[in-house]
Every structure is written in structure tokens, then in C-alpha cells.
Amino acid sequence: MAHIDFLGEVHRSTRRDYLARVLAGNKADFAALAKKFDVEYWDGDRNTGYGGYHYDGRWRVVAQAFADHYRLRAGDRILDVGCGKGFLLYEFTQVVPGVEVQGIDISRYALEHAKEEVRARLQHGNAVELPYADRA
Description:
The protein is of the alpha/beta class. The chain folds into 2 domains: 8-48, no CATH class; 60-124, 3-Layer(aba) Sandwich (Rossmann fold). It contains 7 helices and 3 strands. It has a 3-stranded parallel β-sheet with strand order 1-2-3. Helix 5 (60-70) crosses helix 6. The longest helix is centred in the middle third of the chain and has 11 residues, at 60-70. The protein starts with 7 loop residues before the first helix and ends in a 12-residue tail after the last strand.
């Protein structure tokens, strides 16, 4: 199966020094904070997670690449498991008008701070026990 890189463009758009960030600080402490998936993970210090995960439009190119590759159209359904704040799902609604989106995430904090336009289509849950029927 061919490798498809939908995220490369987003990663190439930053000038951050990933190696320096990864090597800084006590990873065990950072991991313990991040595992809570709350404010520290989403909007706290960059060492413990995203370091302020706010909508900036960067996911538009990813949604467009998915839509083009899979030839998505109005009426198609997308489920984002681990949707976070719903930014990618929002972008799908913009690049494919009429697409049906749903998201699930373990983080109540992320869902409470999700993009308003898709918040009603996101729910709290665990990826191990999805609240959807097979092939739904």
C-alpha cells in the first residue's frame, strides 16, 4: 500500500526546533500532565502539549488533501476519532459543503473549547468503545 502524507504540509509550515523542545525538561513530568488531556495539554505550556491550541486555519490544506484524495462530496460522512477541538472537522465542512461530520474525544476540556461551528457534532468518549454502530 502506498504511503500518503496528508500532514507533511502542516509540519513543513513551522520553523520550530522540534529536537530542542523534545530534549528540554523532565519528560515523565510533562507526560503525566499531558495525560490528563485538560488545559495543561491543550492550552498550557508547549512542553506539556500543544502550548495553546487555537484555530488558525492550518488544517485547511489537510482537509483539502483528504477531500481530493478520497473524492469526498456532499452527503459523505466523516468520523474523527480523537477530534480534539474539532478544527479538522470544521475544515472539512468548509472544503466539502454538505459533508456530514462527527467527532469523538476523550478530553472534555477540548470538547468544551471546540470550534463553535462543529461543537454540537462532537461528543465525549473513548476510542476503545466507540458509541457508533459498525458501518454507521
